[in-house]
What does this fold into?
Amino acid sequence: MKRIVVVGLGVVAALGLFAGPARGGTGNRHEVSEQQYQILMGQCRYADTPSARAECRSQVRENYRIGRFDPTLDCRTYSGVTVCGELTLSPAERACVKDSVSKGLTFRRSEVECYALFD
It folds into this structure.
């Protein structure tokens, strides 16, 4: 019986089912290119408060590491602003996205523009 449990845990660990980068784990950070990492760090300047900017940078350092290019990382550019990954929007920014989408802008474009350009 112990052998089955040990093999099972080995399979779970090999599949990365414990505390990966999206779950806040630090031992298995998501590998991205240097350019992608710089985009992730740079987009933190658009967070709406100093504490949100600091938290954003902390999350990037905790969840990503420079390695090789990740073609699955969701990066997009609108209005000259490039962002990658999931954006944490303030309530006002979410309202901006909702309003922009209701006026015909795509969700992805609205998300980037409201995050980066909303005052």
User: Anything to note?
Assistant: The radius of gyration is 18 Å. The mean pLDDT is 82.
